[in-house]
């Protein structure tokens, strides 16, 4: 099964993806984690990504698609992928469809975590204070949230028209959100 967890930054996609890895044996392909790994490596790509992300901007489609493509076969061999933070644009969604098609696979379900922007800002501010993740700086987060609403939200009709989209209330407890996701995947 190939699943996209869809929602703005800090909506809980990573938390739910990690749970699905444990309970369903899927592989999480988190562009956020991949980008943080690139930054931590100190590579030229990492330095480039760090500069982009610290401004709150999105990394280019080309970079993100290459990161996903490098890990896709591993995920497919394990029985499926959880795409967390990808795709973010129509171009990325089309690239993902093409990559999966080459493997004889497709997206099986898109789960959108519906959340409140004000509550998200509170979540991020708390996480930034506790963990100090530079991409969770509240000012950068506001830019990322605006970019999500402008660039990524248009993916909803893209997947809705394919009858792949399920919406889940992302403001509930971790357990309640998990139960709703499991129900969507098992239906």
UniProtKB/TrEMBL annotation:
Keywords: ATP-binding, Cytoplasm, Kinase, Nucleotide biosynthesis, Nucleotide-binding, Transferase. AMP binds at residues 31, 36, 57-59, 85-88, 92, 133, 144. GO terms for biological process: AMP salvage. CDD domains: ADK (cd01428). GO terms for molecular function: AMP kinase activity; ATP binding. ATP binds at residues 10-15, 127, 172. It catalyses: AMP + ATP = 2 ADP. Pathway: Purine metabolism; AMP biosynthesis via salvage pathway; AMP from ADP: step 1/1. The keyword Kinase applies. Its main location: cytoplasm. GO terms for cellular component: cytoplasm. Its EC number is 2.7.4.3. Residues 30-59 are annotated as: NMP. PROSITE patterns: ADENYLATE_KINASE. It is found in: Cytoplasm. Monomer. Belongs to the adenylate kinase family. Consists of three domains, a large central CORE domain and two small peripheral domains, NMPbind and LID, which undergo movements during catalysis. The LID domain closes over the site of phosphoryl transfer upon ATP binding. Assembling and dissambling the active center during each catalytic cycle provides an effective means to prevent ATP hydrolysis. HAMAP family: Adenylate_kinase_Adk (MF_00235). Catalyzes the reversible transfer of the terminal phosphate group between ATP and AMP. Plays an important role in cellular energy homeostasis and in adenine nucleotide metabolism. This is Adenylate kinase. It comes from Brevundimonas alba.
């Amino acid at each position: 099964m190939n699943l996209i967890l869809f929602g703005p930054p800090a909506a809980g996609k990573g938390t739910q993806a990690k749970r699905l890895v444990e309970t369903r044996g899927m592989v999480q392909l988190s562009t956020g984690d991949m980008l943080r790994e690139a930054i931590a490596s100190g590579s030229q790509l990492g330095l480039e990504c760090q500069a982009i992300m610290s401004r709150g901007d999105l990394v280019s489609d080309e970079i993100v698609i290459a990161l996903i493509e490098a890990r896709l076969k591993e995920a497919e061999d394990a029985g499926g992928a959880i795409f967390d933070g990808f795709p973010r644009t129509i171009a990325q969604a089309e690239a993902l469809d093409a990559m999966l098609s080459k493997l004889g696979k497709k997206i099986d379900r898109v789960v959108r975590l519906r959340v409140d922007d004000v509550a998200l800002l509170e979540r991020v501010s708390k996480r930034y204070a506790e963990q100090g993740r530079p991409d969770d700086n509240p000012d950068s987060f506001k830019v990322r949230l605006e970019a999500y609403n402008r660039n990524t939200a248009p993916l909803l009709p893209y997947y809705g028209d394919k009858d792949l989209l399920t919406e889940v209330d992302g403001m509930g407890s971790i357990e309640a959100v998990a139960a709703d996701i499991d129900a969507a995947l098992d239906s």
